[in-house]
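Hi L., both proteins are below.
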Amino acid sequence: MNNADPAQIVTLAHSAAHVALITLNSPPANTLNRTVRERIIEITADLGRDPEIRCLVLTGTGGAFTAGADLREDMGLTGDRIDEFLTGFDGVLRALEDFRAPVIAAVNGAAAGGGLELALACDIRIAADDACFVASGVNVGLIASFSRLARVVGLGPAKEILLTGDRYPADRALRWGLVTEVHPPGELLPAALAKARRIASRPPLSVEAAKACAALAPGLTREQATALQAEKFHAMVATDDHREAVDAFLSGRAGRYNRR
């Protein structure tokens, strides 16, 4: 599908109010070739400028979430082209990590190599019960995933996954905290979209601040974390959305938020 329309190999749908769905649509492997990476970056940039978007879901079609980079495309990279590839791949990961709103990975199948890295760049990961996770760097004489994986699951499980290059099923990923839910395949996307709607129903400024602060948390001292919480708490207290959220909670109704 190298000559396919980028809009067809990575599709965008608005499945509910404030929720966008990105689908990797180049089965069977949904590889992250350059066209796919650039398309994801383009979509997330556009969605990031849309204040109505409050949550994003990322999934794949067929039997794979994504098998990662196209090895045939990337064979023979040397010198500056290696740096170009690494920068480009990091760009798509950062596009998800730095996306203003939360990103949910609905891992519908194999998340291997760069596909595991892509899932790790999302804020929340849920999986189909037949999904699997592979840090395949050691299988092809490369290295990847060590930083994000260790932050998510801890050093012990991360070394197990990284050093063996083995396939780890969804139930093991759940025990390690790599995913937070496992569903039958037909229930995965509805579950992801339901979670996205739940997130989108919360005050967006608060959700976005929580995402940004949580991303910083591992590198903060206790004093820095306390100061950051105080800063954001003061900012949130002053918003109309905070007052609306309290009133909605006390009234037992859904809140109506305007990002103010």
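That was the first. Here is the second:
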Amino acid sequence: MRIRSRKDNPYRTEQFQRIPVDDEFPVGVPDFNTRDEHPDIGPHIHDLLEIGYCFDGSGLFLIGDKIFTFKGGDAVVINTHEVHIARGSPGDTTSWGFLHLDPVRLLADNVGSYSDSLKLSQYCGAAFKNIIDGDEHPEITNCIRQILVEVRDRPKNYRAMVRSLTWRLMLLLNRYYNVNEAIDALQDYQDIERIVPALRFLNDNYSADVDMAKLAELCFTSESNFRKLFHRAMGCAPQPYLLRLRLNAACTLLKNSTTSILEIAQRCGYNNLSNFNRQFKERFGVSPRDYRNGRPEPQRQEPG
């Protein structure tokens, strides 16, 4: 019998990605892409700050142990410390633009008295909301979109413009994110790395019944040890994380489609509508119908 190796595992950890940049202008090549609900890239991490702008579509962004919904007009900021992956809503495609850059080196000659704005370590952890809502903070999301377009089109003096826009972005982020809030200690990447195959499997299959033994097998460990590893890396057990994933996916469909609530429940792994309604209201404080109608916006509670 052939013994399955780590190389055979389609959900194995993506490699740490080093982004080649010019020392004089440490900004990568922009990536404008369109993807469906099954991303062609697994959970990954970079050695540079990543910014992105969603031009169209909706879906979920998994960043570290956080799960965010996104829609067209939103932006994302991801530090070098957080493993991440995005996926579109079921049946939907998303169009994003992404860019990697090193703001510290890019702006090194003009730091002056605003050096606190370049403390990139503050833009990660549980307190930082990586997805920036375009309706709430258009000044930030538009700034990110402008940076992407400048680097893509390279008009006259685009490097000077990108530096100017990056300074504006750093100052706006510093204003948007209250640096006086407690900043969680950075998670050990090695803890998350051990369970990335399971995270990718959950991302691809959250609507199906999930077997803990299967997740443990993907991570090449026992089921009991897998549960310990998962809790240590994500701060909760696998089942509450799966519940959060399903309900956030339901939020995206409720806000960005006309699909019936019953079908949304089924797409998100619920065979019983009343069970879906109950769990949705327990987590968000409103029913799925009221959430769709915008009365009121839900208060998100992370399961322990």
